[in-house]
Specification:
The protein has about 325 residues and is α/β, with parallel strands linked by helices. About 35% of the residues lie in helices and about 15% in strands. Strand 11 and strand 12 form a beta hairpin.
Length: about 325
């Protein structure tokens, strides 16, 4: 039985509504899903009939932004809650406001310091396009689309056009984006965002987040540890802060020298529940709901389905 416990919707930075996400799950034959939108939790009843019609089980979920004292960021999933309480909801609202402000500052920086290409061309973004009449702030994913329209002009013999995904990846310094454009863009160095974060967000302590999730009957887990380069010592420390599950089966765990198999071993050694999900935002050839897609350097592709039997977290949730 196919499962995906890490799906995003338009409630945060996904491109599909939750109802559309259910339709994608239906087409992909996934039977257990969880919408884990960033810092947003709601028990949406508008698509429940569609779930019943197609025999899909939905696990309530959320993905909470958190940070460590050393400055490292991480995402904590919560599964199985019926609510998250006032304290977490207040944190979500505060985080959203600060994230929007942070993005606004980054976009102002992009106006002041446009992309500089190797050929001397400067690609700038018109200020009025960033802040259209009637809307004071944009979320970072909305800004990515504005930037993409302008930066589609970026030409290079190896990279003839910059896609919307490329623009988004440049904003958030996604893995591989620097290598892709290092021959094109001068002000893209040291594997950092083009426009650095000048406004720091203060995160709720990990132990508080995990406690709130557990208080409302949920299971706190660590999302895609490979993306944040978390090793066994890091995960042991987070387990002491209340993390009970590890998102082992994730396409983001086969990077930085880490592997899904390695994280499976860590979860088993530490007695953590095993979770899994694709961090699904939208469908592409390398991004399928409920399927881990790995594209090797030689262009070969392997696909592995996430199944209910792999996910011990479901023994407690179902």
């Amino acid at each position: 039985m196919k499962a995906d416990l890490h799906i995003h919707s338009t409630c945060s930075d996904g491109l599909l509504t939750r109802k559309e996400g259910v339709n994608i799950a239906t087409m992909s034959k996934a039977r257990i899903i969880s919408f884990t939108d960033h810092n947003f939790f709601v028990r949406d009843t508008t698509y429940q009939e569609l779930l019943r019609e197609h025999g899909i089980i939905e696990i309530p979920g959320v993905e909470v932004s958190a940070g460590l004292s050393n400055g490292r960021e991480l995402h904590i999933t919560g599964h199985g809650m019926e609510d998250v309480g006032k304290d977490l909801q207040d944190y979500f609202l505060d985080y959203s406001d600060k994230k929007s402000f942070q993005t606004e500052l980054r976009c102002i920086e992009s106006v002041r310091n446009p992309l500089v290409l190797r050929n001397g061309q400067r690609i700038s973004v018109e200020f009025e396009e960033l802040f259209k009449e009637g809307k004071e702030t944009y979320f970072w994913n909305e800004i990515a689309y504005v930037l993409a329209v302008k930066y589609n002009k970026v030409k290079h013999e190896r990279d003839p056009i910059m896609s919307i995904k490329d623009a988004r990846d440049l904003l958030v310094a996604e893995d591989g984006i620097h290598d892709k454009f290092k021959g094109t863009i001068i002000n893209l160095e040291n594997e950092q965002r083009i426009w650095p974060v000048t406004f720091k967000i203060e995160y709720m302590p990990v132990s508080d987040i995990t406690s709130y999730i557990k208080d409302y009957g949920g299971i706190p887990g660590l999302a895609h540890p490979g993306e944040q380069k978390f090793g066994q010592e890091d995960i042991e420390m987070l387990a002491k802060e209340g993390i009970e599950a590890l998102e082992v089966y994730s396409p983001k765990n086969n990077r930085h020298g880490f592997t899904i198999e390695g994280y499976l071993k860590i979860a088993q050694e530490l007695g953590l529940l095993i979770s899994g999900g694709t961090d699904f935002h939208y469908s592409t050839r390398d991004h399928e709901l409920g399927v881990i897609v790995n594209r090797a350097e030689d262009g070969s592709v392997t696909r592995s389905t996430i199944t209910r039997d792999q996910l011990t977290i479901l023994d407690r949730l179902l």
